[in-house]
Amino acid sequence: MTQAQDFLAVAVKELGTIEVPDNKTKYGKFTGHDGQPWCGSFVMWCAAQLKPAVKMPNCVYTPAGVSGFQGLGTWSNHETAKPAPGDIVFFSFDGKGTEHVGIVLADNGDGTITTVEGNTSPDTKPTGSQANGGEVCKKLRAYRSTNKKHLPVFVVGFGKPKWS
Fold first, then answer.
1. Nearest to 90 by CA among 58, 121, 120, 59
2. Could you tell me which of 93, 89, 61 has the C-alpha nearest to residue 75?
3. Which of 56, 88, 84 is closest to 157 using CA atoms?
4. What is the CATH number of the domain that holds 75?
5. Residue 63 domain boundaries
6. Average pLDDT, stretch 30-34?
């Protein structure tokens, strides 16, 4: 398997993991940010499980993750991107800045992607928080405004890790 496939396998294995109250997770412990929103800690923990570890900017603070990928020249905005499995996807749910991050599992070919995300709510619980929902979930997300499912677009862009 490729490093990207191994990365996805690690992330998918974590599906269904639920925080122990108030953002307490092994992911936050790993990054030194236990008790804080942990979507970025989830991404970083998954990357670190591989040997060698996946090379990417630190995504614990999501705006810094965006800046890091932009600085490496591996950033694509959502309307022009061609997301691939293993890409890191960044979200803004309030339109005020990047506040959430996940991992692309698949581009569905219709302007949507399937992702795995830490600290979100499952699609079966639409009233839960998308950016601080407390669970590792598989999600369907739109990245193009012309998506065929007519979903709102919260994706701001994608970063491509450097695979070994």
1. 59
2. 89
3. 88
4. 3.90.1720
5. 3-159
6. 98
